[in-house]
Amino acid sequence: MNEPKLAPKYGTAAARWAGIGPYYGMFPTAFTDRAVDEYTRPGDTVIDPFAGRGAAIFSAATAGRPAVGIDINPLGYVYSNAKLKPVGYKAVIDRLGLLAEAAGQYRAIAETLPEFFHYCYSPPVREFLLAARTHLNWRRSNTDRVLMALILISLHGKQGSALSNQMRQSTAMAPNYSVRWWQEKGLTPPEIDPVTFLAKRISWRYVHGAPQTSNAVVYLNDSLQYLPRLAREVREGKRDKAKLLITSPPYHNVTNYYYDQWLRLWLLGGPEYPDTYASNCYGGKFSNQYQYRQLLEQAFAKCKPVLADDAIIYVRTDQRESTYRNTKAALEVNFPEKRITEIPRPMPPQSQTKAYSRGGAPKRANCEIDLLLTAR
Ligand SMILES: C[S@@+](CC[C@H](N)C(=O)[O-])C[C@H]1O[C@@H](n2cnc3c(N)ncnc32)[C@H](O)[C@@H]1O
């Protein structure tokens, strides 16, 4: 690909919004900007069936390409569509003010939250979060979704830069483990006013306003269920075939996208404990190799009717044997007419391989690889 055309890091609205929000396996924006620039022309449609936080779709949308993504995880949906359908600064600040007024009603209920929440958040933060959890209609309202996304980013992280007691920003640890750790270290939740804290961050995000985006959306759904609907729209002439499929499917046996995000999913209305996510529901860690292969093969098969014959397919994956082998095979089965070029990637700082590699990981664990499919 061509050399990146780098904008100053936070010098434009698009650059400030692209960072919404922390997500495993998130594509670096510079990479998706380049891919969209190199492999499509304005007006060409871009698709990502495992869209995550919507990095590829956002790059397409800010470069004047219609784009459609799908992700099964509500967190990916909120982050993606907050960027793709932003609203004005005042709407978000006004909504924050309404939550501040509502928070007082949650004093009693905040007391009844499990122990974890008492160690993680100060009382005003707990009350505010309960108000946000109850009142923000992130599925339907663009304003509520933007505000929710901006709260989710700060929901946990380093003391001082987040609403929580000391935590990682990327993943929420298990409740019992966290409580023990805070107790051992004598750490207490920060005494902050959540509204002042968030208002400052919202202002930062809007310094250059909201980004201009083309017709783009990420649907909250299972790709296997939703892709046939896109195919029908293509058949009915309501949607153009895509010229670029760019995606990064989940990796085999690396992370459970739900368990590791249980606290953010709680704010979106999920359970107060992560145990529900420990099993293989929602794909789990994609640890069953047969099911993993089926998912990839079927997803790519269902992409075919929405792709132009000369579409470019760009898939970023993990070099570890099972992920790499299954992903490549799923592509070969579905696109035998295309040539596959392999492009090894140096380890990006926030790749899912790096974030979730544990000691003793297989030899090939330190690299990602891009599979580029073009006409022979
Ligand atoms: C590696 S992440 C994609 C990250 C993305 N490239 C980004 O920039 O944020 C893989 C995504 O696949 C999603 N996923 C897994 N199974 C899915 C399915 N059946 N349908 C749609 N999305 C799925 C996960 O929720 C996860 O967000």
Which structural class fits the helix and strand makeup? alpha/beta
Helix content: 40-55%
Number of strands: 7
| Integer average pLDDT | 91
How does this structure look, described?
The chain has 376 residues and is an alpha/beta fold. Among the domains are: 32-37 and 44-86 and 214-249, Vaccinia Virus protein VP39 (Rossmann fold); 89-205, no CATH class. Helices cover 43% and strands 13% of the residues. The chain has helices at residues 13-18, 29-39, 55-62, 74-84, 89-103, 107-111, 115-120, 123-135, 142-153, 175-185, 194-205, 223-235, 262-267, 289-303, 321-334, 352-356, and strands spanning 45-48, 67-71, 216-220, 242-247, 307-318, 338-345, 368-375. The protein has a seven-stranded mixed beta sheet with strand order 3-2-1-4-5-7-6, sandwiched between helices. Helix 4 (74-84) crosses helix 9 (142-153) and helix 5 (89-103) crosses helix 8. The longest helix is centred in the first third of the chain and has 15 residues, at 89-103. Residues 351-365 have low confidence and may be disordered. The protein binds S-adenosylmethionine. The site of S-adenosylmethionine has 23 residues, from strand 2 and helix 12.
